[in-house]
Design brief:
Layout lengths: L2 H12 L4 H15 L6 H13 L3 H4 L16 H9 L3 H22 L10 H18 L6 H10 L1 H16 L3 H14 L2 H9 L8 H9 L1
Length: 216
C-alpha cells in the first residue's frame, strides 16, 4: 500500500472516531513524529485544548463588558496585565485563557503571522510567561503545576506539535495541498516541508539558498 492510499485509509477511519478519540490519536502521532516525550497529563491537556477550540466562539470571543461596564481586555498583553494584578482565582483563570490561546494560535495560525505586524514570537513570549506564572499561582500539590511548567519551558516544541497536527488535519484535498505549499514558500516552515515530502511533493525549492541570493 503506497503512502497516499494509506493516508486516505487513515482519513476514512478517523471519520468513525469521536472528536476526542481523533485528537487523542493526533496528539500521540504528533508527539511521536516530533520526538517529544510527554506524560499522560500533558497529553490529556493537549486533547482538551483541541476540543475546546473546536468551537470558533472560544477562539474569537465577542467584545464583552465587565461588571463595572468597562470593556474587557482585547490583547494578550492587556489580559496579562489584568491577570497579574487580580486575586488568585481570577489570575489563574485569566492566565490559563491567555496561555492556552497563545499556544493554540501559535500552532494553528503561526504561518499567517508572516504578513502581519505582530509576529508569532509575541504569542510565544506571552504564552511562555503566562504558563510560567500559572505554575507558581496554583498550589504545589496540584498536578497541573507540572503541566504548566512543562509548557512554559518547552513552549516552542508544543507550538511545533500543534502546527504538525494542523497541517496533517488540513490535507484532505488539492486546495489544502496548495495552501500548504504556499505556506512553505512564504515561511520556510519545516513542518510544512515535511508534510509536503510525505505527500509525495519531492521537488521543493531551496529556500535557504534563495534567501541567501536575495540578501547578496
Amino acid at each position: 500500500m503506497n503512502s497516499v492510499s494509506k493516508n486516505k485509509k487513515n482519513e476514512s477511519l478517523s471519520l468513525l472516531l469521536s472528536p476526542k478519540d481523533y485528537f487523542v490519536d493526533m496528539v500521540e502521532d504528533g508527539l511521536h513524529h516530533r520526538k517529544i516525550k510527554s506524560d499522560h497529563l500533558v497529553k490529556q491537556y493537549l486533547v482538551d485544548l483541541l476540543l475546546f477550540y473546536l468551537s470558533a466562539e472560544n477562539l474569537f470571543e465577542k467584545e464583552k463588558l465587565d461588571e463595572s461596564g468597562k470593556k474587557r481586555p482585547q490583547t494578550l498583553a492587556e489580559l496579562y496585565l489584568i491577570a497579574i494584578n487580580s486575586d488568585v482565582v481570577a489570575r489563574i483563570d485569566l492566565l490559563k485563557k491567555l496561555a492556552d490561546k497563545a499556544l493554540y494560535v501559535s500552532g494553528f495560525f503561526g504561518d499567517s503571522f508572516a504578513r502581519k505586524i505582530i509576529d508569532v514570537d509575541y504569542y510565544v513570549s506571552m504564552g511562555e510567561n503566562a504558563y510560567g506564572e500559572l505554575s507558581y499561582a496554583i498550589e504545589k500539590q496540584d498536578p497541573r503545576r507540572k503541566v504548566y511548567s512543562i509548557f512554559s519551558k518547552n513552549f516552542s516544541e508544543y507550538v511545533d506539535l500543534l502546527s504538525y497536527i494542523s497541517h496533517k488535519s488540513m490535507i484532505s484535498n488539492n486546495q489544502s495541498l496548495l495552501r500548504l505549499y504556499d505556506n512553505y514558500l512564504k515561511t520556510g516552515s519545516e513542518v510544512a516541508k515535511e508534510k509536503l515530502l510525505e505527500m509525495g511533493i519531492v521537488t521543493l525549492p531551496n529556500l535557504s539558498l534563495k534567501k541567501g541570493i536575495t540578501q547578496n
